[in-house]
Protein 1
Amino acid sequence: MPEPVRPIPLSDIEEARKRISGTAIRTPLVKLDAGRAGAEIYLKLENLQPTNAYKIRGGANAVAHLSDEARSRGVWTISAGNAGQGVAYAARAFGVPCTVVAIETAPQTKLERMRALGADIVPVSYEDAWRAAESHTFEGMEGTFVHPFDNHDFIAGHGTMGLEIVEDLPEVRAVVAAIGGGWLITGVGSAVKALKAEVEVIGAEPETAAPYAYSLEHGGPQRFPDWTASFVDGAGGKSVTDRMWERMQAVVDRTITVTLEETRQAMRLMAEKARVISEGAGALSVAAAMTGKAGEGPIVCIVSGGNIDLDKFAELVAD
């Protein structure tokens, strides 16, 4: 059974930073020329992590914090690609086997990278993966389960981004992060709110998969009624679980829903102005900031990852 939901204290995030210091890197904060948008936007470039995505922070902390006995049984997780890479990277560092229950429609780039890190891949449908994430189980799977979002240590690891943001930009007024399972924004929000309670923590979701916005409208965790797959494969879940609703309510102020075209244009803008390759989920935060709904700034947009097939990237950013 999963442990009871509890807040992520600043002390746990600071300990996580020490624990992952040899695995994840401190990523730069780069100002984006947003043109006529007027907002002062900074990019937190998590696409520069060794696995090209932020989830190495949570994966490294979660695996490192396991007992020797739990690690010795091997680890397994559920992923559309980036979480699997983070856990696999950490498992390889400890010399233990890793299995990833992977969404079969994940980009080939992500599947290949998980295999290259030594992970065994069990392909499943999106529905089966989401059921496993909600139940914390998968039939026939052995080893220690490292949940990709409903895991205290995973979230604390992601919180280390919040420490860096406040240290590098003390005048920050808003932080925008994509919402998938809710782990990224919960971790970052926990750190930011502990250090600067007045900073707004804002989510970003695609119009095709916006369960948190839908849940806010209905006053509680909901399943998104019109979920549609898109190139934004690393965010935008089918529902908000009760446990993640409880976690996010404490640290997330609001969310912004963006169109797929706005997301595509954000990918193009980052490529043109900052030479940044971002996957769809990584561009959601910038798309949200570019709507003007996140304020004038300074705004930090978390570019959560850059794991995208280059041909697909070129197609999306072309006019």
Protein 2
Amino acid sequence: MRSLTRSSGAEVLLENILAKSDTMIAWWTPAQRRQMFYQNSEGKVAELNGRTFPQPPLIWRVDSGDLMIRALTENKRPQAVTKLAVAPFWNLSDNGRVCTGSMRRPDGATISSVADWEHGFYESAFTHANVGRLTRHPDGFEGLWSQLAAKRRPFPRETLIVLPQTLAQFIRGERR
């Protein structure tokens, strides 16, 4: 049986880990401040490049080398039935998959790679929108991040677009 399946060594799980298999890991990060880099051929949001912004609480999922991200409306560890929201970032598709363009991608989906996935995401250049609406902010994406750059305040979770997708569905890779 072992020769037919890939077997990974035992790892100590951290408090923020939500699910783990041989090829998949899912975790959450609480609201925090992170530096972000923007590079757009049209010059949109150029004044935001390199600034530090408040971030919503996030759900991260790596499966077979693909990174997917969703947001949370509450700053606490989610449950299986917790509804997720669109993560309001450029370079994400409608299912939350990250277009990894300039991103440094770690190998594998291990506990020790979690920090590297996060660093790779935030240290890459956000270059383009892959979906229509990313936020409920009245001035859209550019308005949201421009407002956040101007003021030191928490991320306005009321600007998130809540989805019918639950954490359990996201971890299983189900689209909603």
Protein 3
Amino acid sequence: MTRWPVLMLSALAVSMSVEESEGARILGVFHFNGKSHFMMFEALLKGLAARGHQVYVVGHLPQKKPIPNYTDISVEGSYPGVVNNYTMDFALELSYYTGLLDYIWNTNLEICRTVLEQPKVRRLINGDDKFDLIITEIFGPDCFLGLSHRFNAPIISMISSVILPWANDRIGNPNHPAYMPNYFLPYTHHMTFGQRLVNTVLTEVLKLGNYYFSELPMDRLSKEHFGPDVPPIAELKKKTSLILVNTHFSLHVPRPTVPALIEVGGLHINEKGKLPEVSYP
């Protein structure tokens, strides 16, 4: 009989020490209107919503059917999508370096400007909402890093390809050009001296180009929309807590990484899918 008071007091102490818990409020912001990019991001966002987090998504590809805990802040139609909007002649005439980089930096800056001017995005920036985490994409200009300052929230970034040359520095990830080939070069990790030299020069040139053609213009645009007190992009991007990259060591070159970079290749693949049964004679 003397054990019951002790057990009751223990149960009361445990119940008082357990605090009420709830899911985080997460804001995903993706300016680029590319389905191939968003497929990866969408898998993570849906997974977070399924685990009870409240997920809000700024993007061009809203869900066709409502999903619990998933709220679209749609900017659909504000900028033409990539799918079925480019001809074969355009692709053949596109210069790999000047054309691709012009698209990544200049065209994406134009997309940033368009998306930031959307009424729904303006209400989000100027509203009273609170968020625990901001999820962004690293591709061209960092359109939404100012939101981390606006909401005083940490940043997680995602890359739908291998890591881009200008993404490593923000988390101190090693990128040694002697055996880590540049994304924009067809080299493997076994490079000749000449290839290493080209790899080194191009890596530094691209990082410099990203600073002048992406960061500096985005700084001006960021101040227009997030206020004159918003820190420069160079400062905001170093507050990135984690980068998720669409690579895997089994398919790409194995390389050392810091804990803040995680390879999540195949994140968007549905595990419940079934391979077709094929019979052979």
Protein 4
Amino acid sequence: MRLFVAIVPPPPVTAELDACAAPLRLAWPDLRWTSQEAWHVTLAFLGQVREDVLPELSTRLERAARRHRAQRLAVRGGGAFPGPSRARVVWAGLDADRAALAALAASVAAGARRAGAPPPDEDRRFRAHITLARLREPADLRSLTEGLADLAGTPWTATEIQLIRSHPPGPGAGRTPVYTSLAAWPLDQALNRQ
């Protein structure tokens, strides 16, 4: 099964981002826009994982979550990968304690590796973002990404990480995968006690 570990924003945050993305979807209808139900912050993409690895993976991810505090996040700004002039992915950025979020992502990846589900992109630099749209071919989206620069959402506290299964789109299901949360583990709530 195809898996990843992520932080999922709460519905008020995704609704707010959806309202900001609506005019962009109208202006750029040829992009493959992701739905608000699919928005997440990927901590580690695991790819194909055997079912027999799940028990150990669950144990390792629970440990990783317990070692890190809840994260204060807000949607802020945006851009494109690999860059606005040759965009393949359009994303919304995050205002966060970057070191703390990167440390959480590293712990999740290390736990997955120890469980036998090494992330194929583990050596890639972690860049916290929410994917808004994808393109089949690179395109110049500088004018679109300029419009994302002023994106600023309401802060929220991420209190858990989730293990999510990605199902390929079925016939007539649209052009994006369907995500199912398999499990969730709480982060240390010390942030809420400060």
